[in-house]
Amino acid sequence: MPYDTLDGLLDDFNAWGRSSGFGFIKTSPGNYVSGVPTCAYIVCDRGGHQKKSKATTRRTTTLKTGCEWTATAKSLKKNDRKWALEVKNASHNHEADADEAELVTHRVHRGLTDAMKATVQALSLNPAQRPRDIFFYLLKQFPNEVFTLKDI
């Protein structure tokens, strides 16, 4: 299905990824036409390699596994500049996160939606509102969203 924008394609793809236990990000937009990119790579958010840590006080960890799942999103002139996705490497080197609670580890699935941001902004007008109270209010109002207190 063609999409009008790259962000629309990525949002729809991540909605599928959320239900399947995966997350995806865009990288390297390029081939600009009139200031707008016409291609970009879509990769698994677990792709990339762990960097050597210089920390000596505490152990650090990363969620990167070197996953090589990749796709290319293109907006071709012959398709009226509609965005389409072509998967280049369809294999993941890690298991899907089947549990909803584990999706918080995928940064693309964590965060506040526009409706949640508007709610936070409205509740923040009252100086007596504590962030913790706003957090619990959001949990009740948006039970299917994954976010942390740090996102507020």
UniProtKB/TrEMBL annotation:
All residue ranges annotated as the FAR1 domain in the record: 14-96
Tree of life domain: Eukaryota
InterPro entries in the cross-refs: FAR1_DNA_bnd_dom
PANTHER family named among the record's database cross-references: OS01G0519700 PROTEIN (PTHR47718), PROTEIN FAR1-RELATED SEQUENCE 5-LIKE (PTHR47718:SF3)
Protein name: FAR1 domain-containing protein
